[in-house]
Design brief:
It is a single chain. The chain has 270 residues and is α+β, with helices and mostly antiparallel strands. The protein contains seven helices and twelve strands. It has two domains: 4-130, Alpha-Beta Barrel (N-terminal domain of MutM-like DNA repair proteins), CATH 3.20.190; 134-264, Helicase, Ruva Protein, domain 3. It has helices at residues 4-18, 39-46, 127-130, 141-148, 155-160, 170-179, 193-213; strands spanning 23-28, 51-57, 60-65, 70-74, 79-83, 93-99, 106-110, 116-120, 134-135, 165-166, 253-257, 260-264. The strands form four sheets. Strands 1-6-7-5 form a four-stranded antiparallel beta sheet, covered by helices on one side. Strands 2-3-4-8 form a four-stranded antiparallel beta sheet, covered by helices on one side. The protein starts with a helix and ends in a 6-residue tail after the last strand. The structure holds a DNA duplex (16 and 16 nucleotides).
Length: 270
DNA sequence: CAAATCCCCTGCAGGC
DNA sequence: TGCCTGCAGGGGATTT
């Protein structure tokens, strides 16, 4: 699902919902790799805490608690954070955070369970966070140029590598490459400085447009209030293999790069 | 290091 | 209608 824009839209809405509130009851489902911290530990550590901050790092969310500990969340492919005003817990709801006040609780649903939850003790980080590269909203041409020099692989693979750039996923990679007129299969090391600069501008541009539109809702992603985002209506190439290119009218191609489907215009993108 | 492969899990669309 | 296959916004482990 969720790439940087969807996670950021989620962060802003969840922040409004939870900041300053004290957790009263934490309901969990059975242990699984969804829970990097065992459910019982999670309950013991969270109940009674006040949520003081909610940050985003790439596609991760980090809730700051009043004892200095933090709660790390990742939405995986199908994760949703929902206000209880927008839906009732169901078979795919793995976590329900209820508060001491009578306001709505927060639900974490995830059909495929690729999402993650981990409690971090005060002062402790997580290797997943430590490995993250530059946040994609702060990318520069120089950063892309430097990161691509030793890469024989496709530029699209580079964009999806969270150690290089944190936050870009399959949708926004395809969209940014189209905007920058660069073929996703282009070997990363062959990019010029000027092309990297163009690509950096394109990445920031599509991510910001995605945030403004409320994210891309395809199958699963919804905002915490239950409403869908609107950026899927602005996708120029993602998921459009075989359809006409919005710029030249030629036929968009679909290829597979690093196990991910990729759509592009062979005429506009070099 | 970089890169390729497989795996985690569930739901859905499309073909037969 | 049912069964089967392939595919899906993510990322980690392992191997070469």
């Amino acid at each position: 699902m969720p790439e940087l824009p969807e996670v950021e839209v989620t962060r802003r809405a969840v922040a409004k919902l939870v900041l300053g509130r004290q957790l009263a009851k934490v309901a969990t489902t059975r242990a699984s790799y969804f829970f990097l911290t065992p459910p019982a530990t999670l309950r013991r550590r969270l109940e009674g805490r006040v949520i003081e901050g909610l940050l985003r790092r790439g596609k991760y969310l980090l809730a700051e608690l009043d004892d200095g500990s933090r709660l790390l969340l990742h939405l995986g492919m199908t994760g949703q954070l929902l206000s209880s005003d927008a839906g009732r817990p169901d078979a795919h709801t793995h976590l329900v955070l209820s508060f001491a006040d009578p306001g709505p609780s927060l639900l974490f649903r995830d059909a495929r369970k690729f999402g993650k939850v981990r409690w971090l003790p005060p002062g402790k980080s997580d290797p997943r966070l430590d490995k993250l590269g530059l946040d994609a909203l702060a990318v520069t041409g120089d950063h892309l140029f430097d990161a691509s020099r030793r890469r024989r692989a496709a530029v699209k693979t580079l964009l999806l590598d969270q150690k290089v750039l944190a936050g870009v996923g399959n949708i926004y990679a395809d969209e940014a490459l189209f905007l920058a007129a660069l073929k996703p299969t282009r070997r990363a090391r062959t990019l010029t400085r000027a092309e990297c600069a163009r690509l950096a501008v394109a990445i920031v541009s599509v991510l910001e447009a995605g945030i403004i539109a409320g994210g891309s809702s395809i199958d699963d992603y919804v905002r915490p209030d239950g409403s869908g985002g609107g950026y899927q209506d602005q996708h120029r190439v993602y998921g459009r293999g075989g359809e006409p290119c919005p710029r030249c009218g030629g036929t968009l191609r679909r290829v597979v790069i690093g196990q991910r489907s990729s759509c592009f215009c062979p005429r506009c993108q070099r």
